[in-house]
Amino acid sequence: MGTLGDLERGVMDVLWDADEALTAYDIKDAIDADRGRDMAATTVLTVLSRLEKKGFVAPDKSVRPHRYRAVGSRAEHQAELMHEVLGDAGDRTAVLARFVGGVSAEEAAYLRDLLARAS
After folding, report:
1. What is the pLDDT of residues 2-36, one digit of tens each?
2. Do residues 84 and 26 make contact, with C-beta atoms less than 8 angstroms apart?
3. C-alpha angle 79/74/101, rounded to 5°?
4. Dihedral pair phi/psi, residue 67, rounded to 5°
5. Which residues face 22 on adjacent strands?
6. 47 exposed, middle or buried (CB, 10 Å; 0-12, 13-18, 19+)?
7. Under CATH, which number does the domain 6-70 receive?
8. Where are the domains of the chain?
């Protein structure tokens, strides 16, 4: 999937937080309210088209206006980004050590539990 630009992330945040598929106008209104500015609906539609090509959103074109939903969850996307970073790292061990060094004791315990279950 890859990384997201600022507008793409804004659209995805709205979709990830939604309980149902949304129209471009629903998304536009949510972004306008969050950012305090008026975004053109055509801009949102362009972003949705890019996100569809990237595999982030799925449209329902059987209804008018079309409705969009996130293909995966925010957590799935963030985990994929972490895997991409590790895949690009020259020294994976150093990256993992730096990451683990920055987690809280509670997060470290949770990671140990997850690793024990994965073994």
Report:
1. 678 999 999 999 999 999 999 999 999 999 998 88
2. no
3. 40
4. -120, 150
5. 68
6. buried
7. 1.10.10.10
8. 6-70, 74-118
